[in-house]
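pls ignore typos typing on phone
NAP + seq
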Amino acid sequence: MRILVTGASGLLGTKVCQLGICKGFEVYSGYKQHRPQKGIPLQLDLSQRNKIGKIFDKVQPEAVVHAAAMTNVDKCELEKRLSWRINVEGTQTIVKVCKKYRSFMVYVSTDYVFDGDRGMYTESDQVNPINYYGLTKLMGEESVRNIIHQACIARTSVIYGSIPATGKTNFALWLLDKLRKREKVQIVTDQTNSPTLNTNLAEMILEILERKLYGTYHLAGGSRLSRYQFAITFAKIFDLDTSLIDPCTSDEMSWIAKRPKDSSLNVEKAMQTLESKPMVIDEAMEKMKSSGTFLSC
Ligand SMILES: NC(=O)c1ccc[n+]([C@@H]2O[C@H](COP(=O)([O-])OP(=O)(O)OC[C@H]3O[C@@H](n4cnc5c(N)ncnc54)[C@H](OP(=O)(O)O)[C@@H]3O)[C@@H](O)[C@H]2O)c1
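k done
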């Protein structure tokens, strides 16, 4: 299968490309700034809409994993026009060209489409984003639903993994780095989600793609944890000192955008449908540990 991955230099896209190649797919790796290491690199800037059609003319992908986005939640709050252009208009363009070329599309969305008042959201629960990033990702979902039938909306939650992507770290690698240097960290106890290992997520997305499963799926880790519980579990599995982790609350953080309190996702549909199941936290962290590539940035 010939696939195009947008955001191929990102935390998720890197894994989708790597595992897609292992499956024997012809993988085109779309990026904006950071040239991906895996697949056939293609510069694809979501804010340059007229160029995206030309890329599709050339590649004619049978399937597209649209993982590119402006993912910095605070930056989206500050730079609303830019995040709208990338996350909403960029997605609309991808959807339209997928329709034109009859490419099956997986749109990677987020748990931040929910307000986080109760958690364990199912695919059919009411959405109500409380920050601009969540709103732009929801508008991306709406474009997919309104324009194309051959598509899957895959909502995920706090991605972590062993490969630093896009020149930035992720929560798990940041924690590993700090605790190895024996630095104290403050981690919030009042933010709960479904942490998701990038490898596990990439496997589930590739299965969706191979089986062409339509509709909305929650593809996330199988455990509901606060950030603090995540950090403690991580430290234990990686044999690090848990006493370096101090609990704190969100109001002590200098965040710009509001964060949902509990945006954990119910993954029962994925559990029932997929061969690649959402992993519980210990299993996923052990997998990350055994991969042995947890480099710091
Ligand atoms: N990370 C999370 O915790 C999380 C949680 C829920 C949902 N998601 C969703 O999952 C998807 C993947 O997230 P991630 O963490 O892997 O992202 P990431 O590591 O932050 O990477 C973002 C990717 O998007 C690309 N990108 C940014 N602006 C672009 C533009 N204007 N044109 C084209 N490409 C652009 C980047 O390319 P360059 O590096 O080349 O600039 C990079 O490849 C996103 O859609 C995100 O909304 C993420």
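The pocket of NAP is lined by residues 6-13, 31-34, 44-47, 67-71, 86, 108, 110, 137, 156-159, 165-166 (CB under 6 Å). The mean pLDDT is 94. more later
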